[in-house]
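seq:
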Amino acid sequence: MKTRTWMILILSVCCREAIGQALITGTVYDKSMYTMRGVSVMGTSGAGTVTDSLGRYHIMLAAGDSIYFSYLGKSTARYLVAEIPSGQPFDMSLQVNTDSLPTVFVHPRDYRTDSIENRKEYAKVFDYKRPNSLPNLRLSPRGGIGGVGIDLNMLFDMKKARRMEALQKRLLEEEHGKYVDRRFTKAIVKRVTGLQPPVLDSFMVQYRPSYEFIQGCTTDYEFYHYIKEWGESFSKDWKQTHPQLID
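struct:
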């Protein structure tokens, strides 16, 4: 009798934990009805997954959550989990052709436009390469170059080459910085992690990703997963180190 009572209690606890959760499954297609691999499927709470090689997905979300789909930086509308029919596949058709899209991120038009215009304006700098006729010269102990007299024209050309390379490096760093600013925004971090100022402000500084890292994320979910995981870790550390700021 006692064993039966314990079983009933365990089952009731499991049922309560499952209340409010919904398992959503389905397949994502392009506008030609071909299945799409690598589509990010996410909830507004931050949970997410990606479609497999056959375009299929499954994700567990809270009833009060919303689900949306993202591909190459473009997101669909958000659909309330509570309004999705239970036990039926929730398929999605995206208005793209998978055979015509490269596997790159699509960014806001203002960033792309600024980047293109910047590239045009400084085309000579971005395209600059040190001529083969300008080796890295070294002064000999006697004060000459390789034991020969100094060629002033060559020295001037070398200085010009160094200036161009330094400017090229600075312009690339500025371009990469703007790229990160467009992808790693307070609005996105706040939505994924739930962090609020001043915790949010500190997190944005300490966990700002590099240009190379964002470029290495093949899907939006990988990028958001990074934000979510480190946001949770940072929040715990903040509560321990700043107890006086917690209500």
